[in-house]
Design brief:
Layout lengths: L10 H4 L2 H7 L3 H8 L7 H21 L3 H19 L6 H18 L8 E7 L2 E8 L7 E7 L10 H9 L3 E5 L18 H11 L5 E11 L1 H12 L3 E7 L13 H10 L5 H11 L13 E6 L7 H10 L6 E6 L10 H15 L3
Parallel strand pairs: 3-4, 3-5, 5-6, 6-7, 7-8
Antiparallel strand pairs: 1-2, 2-4
Helix pairs in contact: 4-5, 5-6, 8-9, 10-11
Length: 357
């Protein structure tokens, strides 16, 4: 795989205003990143920003200001996340950023509102890492299981989790194969649903969680995983695909660094071999017919990664599901990130409503 397959061609290729701001990047940091002249400055800029928030967080904790301390440490984690997220062309630096992101979130976790309890789930020869967070009030609570995508991970979902908590939902965000912490042990694979089922095995018996009211949401690649998981594990009573796809037939039309990223997290060095693996193993048509729970699909017409053809395939695949709600935003981009203040509350509302019906 050539360097061109992995390197974003310019800062704008990484800079996604809607996603970054909705995920919690402060506007001054976003504006400073947008002003960078050279892509080589991207990761150093976010590393320096992360170090500044880490220092603020540690000083706040030492002064007894736990809430501010936790939030600043989380900002440090998020800064590392955005620094390394598409840095596939320099694996050592990307993996250092991944480790820093994980470490900073771990330190923030007990100080967050609501606190994040780290849960490590032993499964086969690996460990699935996740965080359980609870809303106010007595349980057991309905729970939303949250899955990231190609380069989005559990640490990034903090603001969406807050939307769920305000609606009375607990959240459990985890990394699966090829994602975040798990990338180092298990590369991207098409049977992600087995890892979701292991998560359900672990959280369902907990007294804080209402095991009869567990739903799932996945972002981007995670949308595929969410639909697959809900189709194959009937313990999931609601499903939201926040962007998604049916197969990899449109792989060659993706932005070059996105193609390279998929190949990278699959554990391949050769683009052609990676493409073949992805196109042979990712096919939701094999399971989508079993997706019968209430399901919301959010797609943007202007998605450069999963184009309208993928939406059409999903519409056909979900035609049997009378409880499917397919929302295609005519002005939306990938995952409708440019419409975050509109689509994110709608997805949280959908989970809350369907898990209470």
């Amino acid at each position: 795989m050539s360097a061109d397959d992995l390197v974003p061609q310019k800062v704008e290729a990484i800079l996604n205003p809607g996603r970054m701001l909705s995920d919690g990047i402060p506007y001054p940091d976003f504006a400073a990143a947008r002003a960078l002249d050279d892509l080589a400055e991207w990761l150093p800029f976010w590393a320096e920003t992360a170090e500044r928030y880490e220092a603020l967080g540690m000083a706040a904790l030492e002064a007894g200001n736990r809430v501010s301390g936790g939030e600043w440490l989380w900002h440090s984690s998020l800064s590392w996340h955005y620094g390394q997220l598409m840095w596939f062309h320099e694996p050592e630096r990307r993996e250092h950023g991944q480790h820093k992101k994980v470490e900073l979130y771990k330190r923030a976790a007990p100080h967050l509102v609501a606190p994040a309890e780290r849960v490590e789930i032993q499964f086969e020869s690996t460990m699935i890492p996740g965080y359980l967070r609870l809303p106010d009030g007595p349980g057991p609570h309905p729970c939303a299981v949250l899955i990231g995508g190609l380069e989005s991970t559990k640490e990034e979902s903090y603001h969406f989790e807050a939307l769920c908590h305000r609606r009375g939902l607990a959240t459990f965000a985890f990394d699966g194969p090829g994602q975040g912490e798990m990338y180092f042990d298990v590369k991207l694979c098409a049977d992600f649903h087995r890892y979701t089922s292991a998560v359900l095995d672990a959280i369902s018996p907990r007294p804080e969680v209402d095991s009869d009211r567990i739903g799932i949401l996945g972002r981007s690649l995670g949308g595929y995983y969410a639909m697959q998981s809900a189709a194959l594990d009937k313990r999931l009573k609601s499903c939201v695909a926040w962007g998604g796809f049916s197969d990899m037939s449109d792989f060659d039309g993706m932005p070059p660094h996105t193609r390279g990223g998929f190949v990278y997290v699959s554990g391949y060095e050769d683009l052609d071999e990676g493409r073949s693996y992805l196109q042979e193993t990712f096919d939701l048509s094999q399971s989508i017919g079993d997706l019968t729970c209430p399901t919301m699909l959010i797609q943007g017409v202007h998605d450069p990664i999963f184009p309208p053809h993928q939406t059409e395939l999903l519409q056909v695949g979900l035609a049997h599901n009378d409880m499917a709600e397919i929302v295609v935003e005519p002005d939306g981009d990938h995952c409708c990130h440019n419409m975050g203040p509109v689509v994110r509350p709608r997805m949280a509302d959908y989970l809350a409503r369907t898990l209470r019906e």
